[in-house]
Amino acid sequence: MNDDSKDLIWLVRFVWSHRRIYATVMVCSAVILLAVSFLIPKRYSASTHFIVKSDNSVNFENQAMMNGGLAAVGLKNPNDVYLGILRSRHVANRLIDKFALMSKFNVKTRDAARKQLNNAVNIVYLDGNIIEIEVENTSPTLSAQIADEYVIQLQDTLTDMSHQAILYKTKLLDEEIGRAWLAFREAEHSFVKFQQRNGLLPIESQVVALSNTMTTLQTQIAQKKIELSVVSRQTTPDNPERQKLEYELSGLQSELTQLIQSNPKPSKPIISLDSVPQATAMSVDKSRDYQLLNQIYGSLSRQYELVKIDRDNLNRSIQVIDYAEIPEKASFPKKSMILGIGLLLSFVALTGILLLNQYNRVSKS
Fold first, then answer.
1. 307 and 203 together in one domain
2. Residue range of the domain that includes 288
3. What is the pTM of this model?
4. What Cα–Cα distance (Å) separates residue 60 from each residue in 164, 171, 278?
């Protein structure tokens, strides 16, 4: 038999020899611990789970602002943005006002109320793009109400953010459409006058292809300008998404400039028998401008209609998996845990005291 086994046997015999003392102390400790556990205020925990589903049409300007903002602050998951909104001072203040938490928490300042609210709320991102909000409070009803209200406040905040972006984009599209309409009407009037004065001239297929290419470039440039304007309002010049949009816009503008320079307009407006090719070029040029501005105006108009649909059906849908239910059992204090830990500590403390007393008696003898 080794020394460890001998020590264990000796300890068991020592405890058994003082079993009356142990029994008395354990019973007294259990009574005290149970009394304490009943005196501690009960806290109730309520939780809700939901998924944020982005609307494809709104989608933070096709995720440009979202992805750019994530890259700028080093975030990898869009749900980190939602967690930031839920933990924001803006949402906390709304909850404090709605449920009068300053009086319920018995504090005098909003800052103190926010601290207690943050301590009572646990917001985590789970697997499967699920966000969990758990609220613990002395009132079971208030715990469930606060958990559900967090979801409502997130929906309202996302709607406000998307609504502001849509309003700004609508304003930009209004301006672009106005300019495109004036330019289109001017080109149409000029083309009609040229046809009336000189007659129709044939347009070759390669000229039509050139006109379509220029139309596509002009439309893409207009779209990039609008996207860049919206992103610029939300981000800094160092933002990667903003720099990407600026680079793409510069490339499109350079490509359009090269295309125009490689196909210059004729310098002489007078038509003669010796300058029929030049007249043909002028006719093609007028037709190209007319078709170009017509398609740009049509494209911007379609974008405007889509934005109006987004505005009428504005929604960043939150799919709630589990609504918060009013808890029936308290989550704290856990009487069994308090009793178990308390009895263990009492046993260890009593054993130490008895061993120390025996050591003192042996030393004196």
1. yes
2. 166-312
3. 0.56
4. 10, 16, 49
